[in-house]
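Before relying on records like the one below, remember that each one covers exactly one chain. Contacts with other chains, cofactors or solvent are not represented anywhere in the record.
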Amino acid sequence: MDLILGVANVFSATNLFYCFTGCVLGTIVGVLPGLGPASTIAILLPVTMHLDPTGSVIMLSGLYYGAMYGGSTTSILVNIPGEAASVVTCIEGFQMTKQGKAG
């Protein structure tokens, strides 16, 4: 019964909005070269201070995944890794960008 209550809580409109907002903000900051997910969370941590605990954890996870996605965008298009995990993406992704296959 508690599992069903937890899933219903996560998929509420408010928490889905927090997740979407976290993903958008994380992607915006993650696109900046040199800023990875850890620094993105550190920069945007004050945004989550006034939320309830569930909403803030959901927003922080959205920030993390958005920053990971944003870091791969700069690795592929500009050949600048935003974090250590994006170095391999620079090697193959930028070569595909030069061939016109960035999408």
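Residues 32 and 85 are 15 Å apart (CA to CA).
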